[in-house]
């Protein structure tokens, strides 16, 4: 259950898929949106009739039963998640990912990023957030890009670029500096680039980075056609990630490949990102990008699988 945004949905779906890998299960994906008039209301004041008509059903149809497990992500889902236990007559085990910041005790389990600092008897802290990156999915995603990526000279460098957020900004000037450093590092190593942007990346930043990295061997995704994100992670020897995305950093660290954190322009104190990056450094997964493509090894993070085991253990006990 999510609002349908890919970053939100992938957290809930990734955890559900990890549970499914441990025990037979059917997964139903539901997406909800609130009508604009009610979207900004506090969660405590929202009711089902305020949902947009495009939303999927949030309760079983006549003759159907409530699910054994409800996994939801994001602010939009909170009013529904908080009422599931009562409406299902206690049948449904409710899991909320991220820090809900509202009625934490209403859920059977909260799977929260450790960098948020949330604690409690029903809280499981993990490094980063649940995600869908697995070896099998990377292999599946890579198949469509085998012809384009396998001939690229190594080391192959995946560059995952975000954009403006509440904590960080990426201006064209900063983007140009990053592109110069990345290009110089790849040239020095004799490698190639695999670059993709997020939906938050400004068009001006995309243009600057494409221009500055013109001539570097590799592939810069233009946003058209199949998304090569999983293929980039699979084929990469190094992964460079802008510091604004906790999700991309955690996903990159699940590959066991060196993760280099690219600096951005801070807009305010970003303590939670600093805590995440410190956690990844302690685990040996990530280091700040210093202009070199130095390699190192570490045990790939498997936090989504750990969370799935915890969900099943608590579900059995409930």
How do the helices and strands line up, and which of them pair or pack?
Layout: H1 6-22, E1 69-73, H2 78-87, E2 93-97, E3 109-113, E4 123-126, H3 135-143, H4 146-149, E5 156-161, E6 168-169, H5 172-189, E7 192-197, H6 203-212, E8 218-220, H7 229-235, E9 238-242, H8 246-253, E10 259-262, E11 265-266, H9 271-282, E12 286-288, H10 303-317
Parallel strand pairs: 1-2, 2-3, 3-4, 5-7, 5-9, 7-8, 9-10, 10-12
Antiparallel strand pairs: 6-11
Helix pairs in contact: 1-10, 3-7, 5-6, 8-9
Summarize the structure.
By secondary structure, the chain is an alpha/beta fold. Helix content is 35%, strand content 16%.
Question: Would you write up a description of this structure?
Answer:
Helices cover 35% and strands 16% of the residues. It has helices at 6-22, 78-87, 135-143, 146-149, 172-189, 203-212, 229-235, 246-253, 271-282, 303-317; strands at 69-73, 93-97, 109-113, 123-126, 156-161, 168-169, 192-197, 218-220, 238-242, 259-262, 265-266, 286-288. The strands form three sheets. The chain has a six-stranded parallel sheet, sandwiched between helices. The protein has a four-stranded parallel sheet with strand order 1-2-3-4, sandwiched between helices. A two-stranded antiparallel sheet has the order 6-11. It starts with 5 loop residues before the first helix and ends with a helix. The mean pLDDT is 95.
Question: Descriptors for this entry?
Answer:
318 residues, alpha/beta, 6-stranded parallel sheet, 4-stranded parallel sheet, 10 helices, 12 strands, globular
